[in-house]
Structures are given as structure tokens and as C-alpha cells.
């Protein structure tokens, strides 16, 4: 596999500092909601969170939807053969999970997440309302703008088939990533008809 890596679109460090500052401002150490740090997972964070958490809930975000429409040139593809990963795009709604992370662990956990999700500064991290069976929480989510150069736009069935057949990055193939996500969603009772339809193009 070619070791060429894309240049970051933006410096991830100030974005991390901003996310932490927003959380601390809304959840002061001695405030009514001290200790609560929530993260929304809608793709691989459902089946491979890779961080400690004190609680996990099913959740729904309104105004955003899960879409396999972000180019991946590191994790699930390369610069020469880009793969795809999920992003939250505006419109619709999305079922996923939220994780509660202990306050003392939040800065280190977020820094770890930044290395995994924000290596090229592609996502727009946002604090979103997530409805859960136990009530709403405000959680950090990784969204994508349609103005981003990493947004794929509309792809044809043939393009998806080619990507599923050939794209492979440091964490494995786009095809396996999509299938693992679909299996995890089904295990949680979440039905994603759009993803099911896309995987019909996987060899």
C-alpha cells in the first residue's frame, strides 16, 4: 500500500481546543451537569469505540442523517484509490448511540478521538441534541459540510461497486467497514435502508 498521505484540510489542534472549551463552558466543573461529556456515534464508533465510557444509550438526532459520502484516503482508502466513510449530513434524522465519558477522562479521550477522526481536519464537530429513552442529552458529533472537498456528492452504482471492490486503507476496506456498520446497526435494532441498498453493489 502506498504510504502517501493527504495534507490536512485544516489544523485539527484549534478545533480540538474549541470543542473542549465549548464543553467546559456548558458544563462547568461545579455546575448542575458537571461530569457529563457525551459523544454521538453513528458509524464505526458504534462497533469500535476504543475508549472507556460510563454509560451507553440508544439515541436519535434530528436534522442530520448518516451517509456513506465522505472520501477516505487514510482509514478506508488511499490517495490513489480513495475509499468511503460515513458522515453526518444535514437533513433527515439519524439513529445511533451516545456515550457518557467521565469528566476526568474527557480531555484525553477527545484527544485520542481527534487522532482517529480528525487527522485531516475534515469533519465539522458540532454539539447536537440527542433524544434518548432517558431524556435528551447534548453530545458531540462529527458532521460534514456539502461544501467540503471530501464530500462525494452523488455516486453511481458503478462507482460504489468499484470502491467496494478496490478501496482499502490502514483500518481495512470500505466494503468491510460498511458491512460491519450495517451488522452493528441491525444488532441494535436500527434499520438503515439506504446502506442496505448500497451494499447490494458490493462484490
Strand order of the largest sheet: 1-3-2
CATH topology: Hypothetical upf0131 protein ytfp
The total count of strands amounts to 7
Parts with pLDDT < 50 across at least 5 consecutive residues: none
Mean pLDDT: 90
Summarize the helix and strand pattern as letters: HEHEEHEEHEEHH
Tell me the structural class: alpha+beta
Profile the largest sheet.
3 strands, antiparallel
Number of domains as seen in the coordinates:
1
CATH superfamily: Gamma-glutamyl cyclotransferase-like
CATH architecture: Roll
> Terminal Cα separation, in Å?
21 Å
Q: What's the total helix number?
A: 6
Helical percentage: 25-40%
- Give the amount of beta strand, in percent: 25-35%
What is the level 1 CATH name?
Alpha Beta
Radius of gyration: 17 Å
Global shape: globular
Quick overview:
With 203 residues, the chain is of the alpha+beta class. The protein contains six helices and seven strands; from the N terminus they run H-E-H-E-E-H-E-E-H-E-E-H-H. The protein has a single domain (12-194), classed as Gamma-glutamyl cyclotransferase-like (Hypothetical upf0131 protein ytfp, Roll).
Describe this structure as you would to a colleague.
Keywords: Lyase, Transferase. This is glutathione-specific gamma-glutamylcyclotransferase. This protein is of the alpha+beta class. It has 6 helices and 7 strands, in the order H-E-H-E-E-H-E-E-H-E-E-H-H. It is globular and about 45 Å long.
How would you summarize the topology of this molecule?
Elements: H1 12-26, E1 37-41, H2 44-47, E2 55-72, E3 83-101, H3 106-117, E4 124-130, E5 137-143, H4 157-166, E6 168-169, E7 172-173, H5 174-187, H6 193-198
Antiparallel strand pairs: 1-3, 2-3, 4-5, 6-7
